[in-house]
Specification:
By secondary structure, this protein is of the alpha+beta class. Among the domains are: 82-112, no CATH class; 114-198, no CATH class. It has 5 helices and 9 strands. The protein has a 4-stranded antiparallel sheet with strand order 6-7-8-9. The longest helix has 38 residues, at 4-41. The chain is elongated, with a radius of gyration of 35 Å. It starts with a helix and ends in a 6-residue tail after the last helix.
Length: 204
């Protein structure tokens, strides 16, 4: 039995298949290139324009849309009043809870604390979950944005420690309290503490 016709037929089939693939390739490639060029010419500057341009949307939160190498995130509008805290204060409207006055207020409109000592007292009471009347604070040094002093918990005769506080905007924050060693270089670099506050009690 001769197998030459079979091989010949097989070669014809292979050649035809290759020809079909080449025809399809040359027909589709220009269309792909044309679509890609058109897509790149579309001006996309935000999430909505990216979606309108027919780009894929990723179902994340917030949703994201990719246009070429750019990724645009959907902007989620925060409704004023939808972010009340446990005291009923609306953060998006600028309100925060003031413990001494027991009400919500805007700190740039009305001061919450009588003085710096009271603010640091409430800060430390909250940090260590202590009743406010068990925290005694005394400022020994203070500039416009920095303060140092002593703090005692419990009875006035009980042992206490020292603290360092810095003002950020309108809020005082204690960045160190206790009797341990102090990283003077970090305090100077990160919080701009002056030597008049740090020396001699905290740094040499």
């Amino acid at each position: 039995m001769s197998i030459k016709p079979t091989i010949k037929n097989l070669l014809i089939v292979i050649l035809l298949a290759i020809l079909v693939v080449l025809v399809i390739f040359f027909l589709i490639t220009p269309q792909i290139r044309k679509y890609s060029e058109k897509n790149n010419q579309v001006s996309v500057t935000n999430f909505e324009e990216c979606v309108e341009a027919g780009n894929p949307v990723m179902e994340s939160y917030p949703r994201q849309c990719q246009h070429g190498e750019q990724i645009f995130s959907e902007e989620i509008e925060q409704t004023v009043g939808a972010d009340k805290d446990e005291h009923g204060c609306i953060g998006s409207a600028g309100y925060s809870w003031c413990e001494p006055k027991e009400k919500c207020l805007r700190i740039w409109e009305e001061k919450c604390y009588t003085n710096t000592e009271q603010e640091i007292q409430y800060f430390l009471a909250s940090k260590y979950n202590k009743p406010i009347d068990e925290v005694t604070v005394a400022i020994t040094k203070q500039t416009e944005n920095h303060a140092a002093g002593n703090v005692k918990f419990g009875q006035a005769s009980s042992a206490g420690g020292m603290f360092l506080a810095v003002r950020s905007g309108n809020i005082w924050e204690v960045v160190y309290d206790g009797n341990g060693s102090v990283d003077c270089e970090r305090l100077k670099a990160e919080y701009n503490f002056p030597d008049e506050i740090l020396k001699p009690n905290f740094c040499d």
